[in-house]
Amino acid sequence: MTRIGFIGVGHLADYTVRGLRHGTWTHPIFLSPRGEAVSASLAEHCDCTVMEDNQAVVDACDVVILAPRPAQALEALASITLRSDQVLLSVVAGLSIAGIRGVVGEELPVVRALPVTSAEVGKSPNAFFPENPVVEDILGHCGSAIPLVSEADFDAAGVMSCTYGWFISLYDAMIVESEKAGLDSVTARKIVLGMAEGAAAIAAAQSDDTVDVIARKIATEGSFTKRGLDHLEAKDAFEPWREAHGLVLDAFRKA
Length: 255
Ligand SMILES: NC(=O)c1ccc[n+]([C@@H]2O[C@H](COP(=O)([O-])OP(=O)(O)OC[C@H]3O[C@@H](n4cnc5c(N)ncnc54)[C@H](OP(=O)(O)O)[C@@H]3O)[C@@H](O)[C@H]2O)c1
Prior knowledge:
elongated
């Protein structure tokens, strides 16, 4: 049995716990009292136990998930005493393992991950570092668990947790255009999100080809798809995406 405890019960804890229960995680989950409304809701709907304070959470569990906002995380960490037989899983963006070890020392395993909101429906691609079988098991219950070999790789993968949000904004723009073209909003949403899901699924399935080759096979000469893609490329539409990627990666590396 692996008992999980969350220090910091806000948005991330909310969707991650819901995802774990949706993914049939049956082991006990303990919650810190901060974030009262979310804690109460998770206790009611997801079979969690709200503890008296942070230390009570730590004392009750095997894996401590550190989930306050970045500016609050070290203070929260300093308020607890961890055991050497525990695992600390930090989901705090931009907080390095060295930064965490500066507070908790070298005794226990420290692992980083950044589950995104699709954890709630069991679809978060959870990159994590370093490898740890217990963490892998937990993350596998709310999506896929993808071990990485270095913290530099973790930063690179972390940018994708932001790209995930940008994709949703792009879907929104296409839904709005579909509505302007006459589709009702329910149909527009179903079709745009279905296309996004289908595009990801076929690109994942055709793993012998690069994703660029898959795209070019769809945007064939004379096709309407190519007409639109040519326009996007003529406008250098992917360049701001590359720039946004670069600026977030820089921010992660400087944090
Ligand atoms: N949300 C996302 O999509 C996402 C994705 C990947 C990673 N993350 C990471 O997840 C972490 C949490 O993000 P979030 O969106 O869940 O933030 P959030 O909704 O603001 O939740 C943070 C929670 O931590 C609590 N807290 C603050 N200080 C605490 C302390 N000393 N002891 C115990 N609890 C404390 C806060 O309580 P009060 O309200 O009482 O201050 C709040 O309930 C961040 O570090 C973020 O980088 C988030």
